[in-house]
Write a sequence for this structure.
């Protein structure tokens, strides 16, 4: 380790004086091969250039984890053993359609769902804990879907 460090320190003045724009074709080729070998040996050096950080996704990661933890803590009450729960209300234009489509899908796939009516105070309390106020919305173990979801979307999530 000390020898490698000593070699690097000894070579530093020479490297600092190298004019990389004045390299010969053979020198450029040799440098390229060295850089390639280094990047293959340690790909994390190039990772930021190849796949830059997604700051927007990182900003929401903590919130997403908190939401998943909240759903997990309420799973027994919300899902009650089913893979999906639907919250509907009395004065809701899309709720009847959402309920009919979910019934058809769960019948076709032979699965059950849990139905929460927002006229029930316990369902309203669950919805408030989930941060949801406007029915219809669907809850699964790993997501909440706001509003009426088309049949094809629900099939994608519920297909065996």
């Amino acid at each position: 380790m000390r020898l490698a460090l000593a070699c690097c320190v000894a070579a530093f003045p020479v490297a600092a004086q190298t004019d990389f724009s004045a390299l010969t074709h053979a020198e450029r080729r040799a440098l390229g091969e060295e850089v390639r070998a280094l990047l293959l040996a340690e790909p994390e050096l190039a990772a930021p250039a190849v796949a830059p950080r997604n700051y927007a996704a990182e900003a929401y990661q903590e919130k997403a984890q908190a939401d998943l933890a909240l759903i997990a803590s309420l799973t027994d009450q919300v899902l009650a053993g089913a893979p999906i729960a639907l919250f509907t209300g009395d004065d809701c234009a899309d709720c009847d359609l959402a309920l009919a489509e979910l019934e058809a899908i769960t019948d076709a796939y032979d699965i059950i769902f849990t139905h929460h009516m927002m006229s029930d105070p316990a369902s309203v309390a669950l919805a408030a804990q989930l941060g949801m106020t406007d029915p219809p919305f669907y809850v699964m173990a790993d997501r909440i879907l706001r509003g009426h979801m088309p049949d094809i979307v629900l099939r994608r999530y519920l297909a065996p």
Q: What stands out?
A: Confidence is low (pLDDT under 50) at residues 1-6. The chain is about 60% helix and 10% strand. The two ends are 56 Å apart (CA to CA). The helical segments are 2-17, 25-41, 47-50, 55-78, 95-109, 121-130, 151-158.
